[in-house]
Write a structure and sequence with these properties.
This protein is of the alpha+beta class. The chain contains 13 helices and 19 strands. Strand 4 and strand 5 form a beta hairpin. The N and C termini lie far apart (54 Å).
């Protein structure tokens, strides 16, 4: 198999200075349209829903902060509009043998510290991620066996088995490239060491990141002087700040704030279908969740249609498993499970369940609606004789316990295309026996064999069929309760120009982001 993609990459910069029909006042063009000229001294504020952890380590979720902030760039990029992988820091790539992929590095790119982008610099960044104690879900020694520079402009990626999805893996934000100067001992310093349109210059720990324009950006002129990305975990606060103008862009707006924002002429609410499912994770490695009958009983006890209509106010649809029914790998639409109290009680009896202690649900505070979701689940389970207590915590505080299996249930949401833009990353990390993000602590040999086969399958239709088989096993085993399929909902002040919503929340500050001249 050989794949080669063209060197062209479109950044859409030509449309920045003349935007029509945006609802702003400005100089007249002599027609019904209005011309908006960007004020290149403007700065904007972005409210993001999570804060960086792990001292900016690229293998961690801190890479998402650096990417959405317009700092960190990768060799390839997933274009959500086109639904395909396109060039970024690499201009082309090809599979030169069953186990080898060669990527051509873009010429004329410099890091923000002035040093040139070379194959050696790329290799240094990627090897750092590959050797991490806790490897990235999309790029780790299980799927990549080596990274080497063949010459000044060519990087070779070697895999332990044939892998058709290497270009997808190189679009993961965890494979972002930093200058060699960013790596000093165990620490990672992204300040001044990225290639993107914005350069981080200062931070307030767990509060904000301040960025300035990269005057030498390889992709064209950057329209904003800079930005501040604030880490605001409370959804209600993000909603309020974009309405008052304290923030120009607020990400991940809770449904409780939609009506208010949609009625405000100064705010645009952006919605997009998203591969994100709100999920009640159950610890399959711990009693009583180690019995499939008990997990099935929890599923039968919940009224997902009422949950979607009430807490989510109709902005989400009941889920029928780990995939949304519209996805090509969903394998048909079996329909969301229906509430059946009698069936739930029968399954609890078959599981030998006794309510000797209340089971705990952790509701992640970054999702404002989860407190209400937890209350609904608590009431539903109480009706079948399962007592539940609720605690609310920030995700960063609870993740170690989740990964170690020290919990009962947790409400969280997982974007299944966030690691790589193909379900293989999600299905491997979250549900295989050795998965690095297996919060459910589920292990099934048949499932693992299907995923291993899918990872070697180049034909997309055949691979999607294998994903559907894997999804059926997860549904049949009631590994979790997949509650509702959500939309990506962001809010933007109406005077922000050139903003494009990214449903995967990887790219927010871009070269074309702008505000109009007064």
């Amino acid at each position: 198999m050989r794949i080669s993609l063209p060197a062209s990459v479109s950044l859409g910069l030509a449309a920045l200075l003349t935007l029509t029909g945006c609802g702003f006042t400005g100089s007249s063009t002599g027609s019904s349209q209005t011309t908006q000229v960007a004020d290149k001294q403007q700065r904007i504020v972005v409210d993001n829903f999570r804060a960086p952890v792990a001292n900016w380590a690229l293998e961690s979720d801190a890479a998402y902060i650096l990417s959405l902030s317009g700092c960190l760039e990768t060799l390839t990029r997933y274009d959500e509009a086109e639904g395909k992988i396109v060039p970024l820091l690499a201009t082309e790539w090809k599979q030169t043998s069953p186990l080898e992929w060669d990527f051509t590095i873009r010429e004329g790119v410099t890091f923000q510290d002035g040093t040139p982008l070379t194959a050696e610099a790329v290799v240094g960044s990627l090897q750092r991620v590959l050797k991490a104690a806790v490897p990235a879900r999309a790029f780790n020694p299980k799927v990549v066996s080596g990274v080497a520079a063949l010459d000044e402009r060519t990087v070779r990626i070697t895999t332990p088995t044939e892998s058709p999805l290497v270009p997808y893996r190189l679009a993961s934000v965890n494979t972002g490239v930093l200058s060699p100067a960013a790596f000093k001992g165990a620490n990672v310093d992204p300040f001044g060491h990225c290639t993107g349109p914005f350069k981080p210059v200062s931070e307030k720990a767990k509060q904000s990141l301040t960025l300035d324009r990269n005057e030498n950006y390889w992709g064209g002129e950057v329209q904003l002087a800079g930005a501040e990305v604030r880490f605001v975990t409370d959804g209600a606060t993000r909603t309020t700040q974009v309405q008052t103008g304290e923030a120009d862009i607020s990400m991940s707006i809770p449904v409780s704030g939609l009506a208010t924002l949609e009625a405000d002429s100064n705010v645009k609410v952006l919605k997009a279908d998203s591969p994100r499912t709100a999920t009640l994770y159950m610890n399959n490695g711990k009693a009583p969740f180690d019995k499939v009958e008990f997990r099935q009983a929890v599923t039968k006890a919940l009224d997902l249609e009422a949950l979607a209509a009430s807490v989510y106010e109709g902005a989400a649809i009941p889920a029928n498993g780990p995939f949304a029914p519209s996805e090509p790998w969903a394998g048909g639409n079996p329909g969301a499970p229906k509430k059946d109290v009698d069936a739930a009680r029968k399954l609890l009896s078959e599981a030998g369940y006794t309510s000797d202690r209340p089971l705990e649900i952790i509701a992640i505070v970054e999702r404002a609606e989860f407190a209400d979701v937890a209350t609904v689940i608590q009431d539903n389970l109480k009706a079948v004789g399962v007592p539940v207590s609720i605690v609310t915590k920030e995700y960063a505080a609870v993740e170690p316990d989740l990964l170690s299996g020290n919990y009962d249930m947790v409400l969280s949401q997982r974007n299944r295309l966030i690691d790589i833009a193909d379900p293989i990353g999600f299905l491997t990390a979250d549900y295989t026996c050795d998965g690095t993000y297996n919060l459910s602590h589920f292990c099934n040999e048949e499932y693992d064999a299907i995923i291993a086969r899918a990872s070697r399958t180049a034909d997309a239709e055949e691979r999607y069929g294998l994903y559907a088989q894997a999804g059926k096993i997860l549904r049949d085993q009631a590994v979790n309760v997949w509650l509702v399929n959500e939309q990506a909902i962001d809010a933007v002040r109406s005077n922000v120009l050139g903003h494009t919503q990214d449903p995967l929340a990887r790219y927010v500050l871009r070269a074309q982001s702008a505000k109009p001249a007064s």
